[in-house]
Amino acid sequence: MIGPAAFATIGLLFLLSAIHVFTAALYQSLFEKLPNTTLGALAFVIFGLSLLGGVVAGRLGPRRSVAVTAAVLATAMLVVTALRQEWVDLVLSAGAVVAGTQWLSLTHSVRTADRSSPLPIAIPVALVVDLIVRSAFGTIPVVAAPLAVAVPLVLVATLLFLAAGIATLGEGTVWSAPTPRAALGLVAVGPLLLAAETGGLNGAQVALAGGLGRDGGPSTQIGLLVVGIGAAAGAIVLARGLPARPAAAAAIVVGAVLLWLHIPIVSVAAGAAFAAGIVIAASALTSAPQPGSGSPWLAVVAFGVGWLLFVGGTFVHYAYFANLEVLWILTAVVVVAVLVAPASALPRWRPLLAWSVAVLAVLVPLGALVVTPSPAMKAQESNFRVMTYNVHQGFDVGDVPALDRIADTIYREQPDVLVLEEVVRGWMIDDQHDVLGYLAGRLGLAYVYGPTIGDLYGNAILSRYPITDVRRVSYAKEPGVRYQPRGAVIAHIGDDSTKSRLLIAVTHLDENSDASAVRMEQVRALLNEVGQTTPAVIACDCNAKPEAPELKLITDSGFGDLALQSGGPDNTFPSDTPVERIDYIFGTGVTAAQGHVVASTASDHRAVVVTVTLSSR
User: With 70 as the cut, is the pLDDT of residue 103 above it?
Assistant: First the structure.
């Protein structure tokens, strides 16, 4: 089984990468250009094409159908890794998803006289390896890592994948098909992967659900370590031959319930149980024996229905602002499927495999936690170099992952205080990377974070000075899905004992072009929270031009446009050919100098930088 398991494991890693790239490219490239329902329909079509796997099987036969879909999957992801162009990513990753989902069902259905499906071993191993690699790369997926690292790694994986496929697809392969009860387990594979992506193996979500990561610290690394411990426990259960199905169901139920209750610390610990349940269930759902058959159609349809549930859950969760009910429903589907699937014995992992996976699942996240640098605090001064930057969820103006370029852009400006908008911390549709944790670690800055959509999207303040008196403000939300939840983070920067204390507020106002009245209400709420405090700075992606009435509310309250005062107004959006000025730094009780806009396409916005000097009291 080593050859087939390796073939299936590497293929699953390619498929997971294809899903991440496709969902991110679809969302980043077409969001606001097409309605959400249209985006959802496109995703349904792409994943629905998995149902044509039976046609591919009928035309090519067992060996060639698996070989062709495997080759398309791996080749497409290698090209995506190397080229990194918006529409190339979208088209090729879509093709990789189609080929990969078909490959999965066909690989599960191909049999020889002495071999069963490799998926009961490959799916849990692939999920844990994905966790290990994310921990090692600071949550950046391998395909988005620097080219000098990513291309060789993906090329080696491609060669190993194809070599393992050649060794696996020998003579005597025939089709098999699941029983109706076993097919229910295959249907639940898609929901299981969504539960893993959004909670069970998502370190950022585990940490933030348990109260970590709002006020600094290596929270995502702690979350990854916790889920790594859970994954290791799941691997040990599979190696020891313990009662897997009840253990998986109980661990998922307890872990998911406690995670989504958002109980401080308890929800972090619950992440370990959730992760263990995911790993065990990944084996249980695909382990039922399958008798010989003339066609893999039943397996193809079962997996295909699961992929449609995956897409439906993903759409509802993200389109409706981190909707949790759909995740609860699909998690319940997984639990039911684990319990009612045929009670066949799960293939026991070899001790070497189990302990290797378990040790790495703990040691790699632990190593990442240990090497995470502490913030380098700066001696107090009366001058603050302030930078505001909408980081576009970690993507550049071409909608290609660009966290390293964003970090370099910020580093060159050396801000003392950095405020960020569009901060994502583990969304599946944004490559599951933690933008804030990665940038804070790279730049050596302390931070505070204010979520606005669920736990994993919001605004942040980073600083070389102490951050105190933190407040998080949620604006009243207008009804309808066109209006996102919005809010602000307000904090003091500096030490009051040295009379060098500055109030900073960061916000991201509504983006709809016809929503000036909505933005005015958001500004009023913010100004009410800021009050008469001075010196103070408001930094924002205001989504409004300088003459807009919502900005007049700010200036009429005593705040000056600091960039205008100290360097002249420059447009900030879009970053490649800026035609609008919508990013601002306003201040009161300060004087401004060296105001400028940073010419960089690392995000779709250009950053604004101003050096402020606190007025004497």
Answer: yes
Q: How far is CA 194 from the centre of its chain?
A: 12
Averaged pLDDT of the chain: 94
CB 188 within 8 A of CB 338: yes
Q: What angle do CA 508, 509, 512 make, to 5 degrees?
A: 130
- One-letter identity of residue 10: I
pLDDT one-digit tens code per residue, 305-318? 999 999 999 999 99
| Rounded-to-integer distance, Cα 230 and Cα 236, Å | 10
Taking the C-alpha atoms of residue 565 and residue 502, their distance in angstroms, rounded to an integer, is: 19
Residue 464 is classified by DSSP as S
Give the model confidence (pLDDT) of 241-298 as tens digits. 778 899 999 999 999 999 999 999 999 999 999 999 999 999 999 998 888 888 999 9
**Residues 595/607, Cβ–Cβ less than 8 Å:** no
Q: What is the mean pLDDT of residues 392-401?
A: 96
Which domains does the chain show, CATH number per domain? Answer: 2-370 (1.20.1250.20), 374-614 (3.60.10.10)
Distance CA 506, CA 420 (A): 8
SS3 473: strand
pTM (whole model) above 0.85 = yes
Separation between Cα atoms, residue 235 and residue 613, nearest integer Å: 57
- Annotate 499-531 with three-state secondary structure: CCCEEEEEEECCCCCCCHHHHHHHHHHHHHHHC
